[in-house]
Amino acid sequence: MELLGPGFDADPYPAYTRLRDSGRVPLLTVRDGLYGRLVSRYDEARAALAGRRLSKDPRHAPPDWQAAGRGRPLEDRSGLGAHLLTADPPDHTRLRRLVSRAFTSRRIEGLRGRVQEITDSLVDAMAVKGTADLIAEFAVPLPITVICELLGIPVADRGNFRRWSTDVVSSTPRRSGRATGRATGRPAEPQHLHRRSSRREAPRAGR
Predict the structure, then answer these.
(1) Nearest by Cα to 142 from 128, 123, 166, 170
(2) Core-most of 8, 33, 60, 62, by most CB within 10 Å?
(3) Who's near 22: CB < 8 A, 6+ residues apart?
């Protein structure tokens, strides 16, 4: 199936409709020979997410898929490639339990006022310009700003944090030595985050 045809970027919905109506789960080939099945309908998506035969851990991928993925942050489970999005149970269950403690209903409700302030600020900035890129100027900076405030990331470091976050979940290999920690293209480790985390944990260690 030809999905990314002419006009797709301007109006992708006809292609999505054809894909859903076809009832197929087509095999697609993307950059550098990586491939996968494209699931577009609700029932198939639920079945795929709940199926024990499928894995999010790149180490379980076929050898040719792993070879095509060299140079990506998720190519293995070392360094920044090991996180919640690349884990299967029971590791995923353990990590999700740790994360969920920071996102209880009470905690989220307590963030409402600050999230509204950030939202208003972003909307005001777009209004002044008259036109705006909704993704780049609102949909991306809003969650990044909230996450940085939750983690205590200094304002001066938030640009780097955004780039690191993008690299970690990107499907595109980074080849530039400027932004990599190894020749494979994996992004440099944000060591200052570890230092900040250690400082936060220090009081607990003394109890």
Answers:
(1) 123
(2) 8
(3) 1
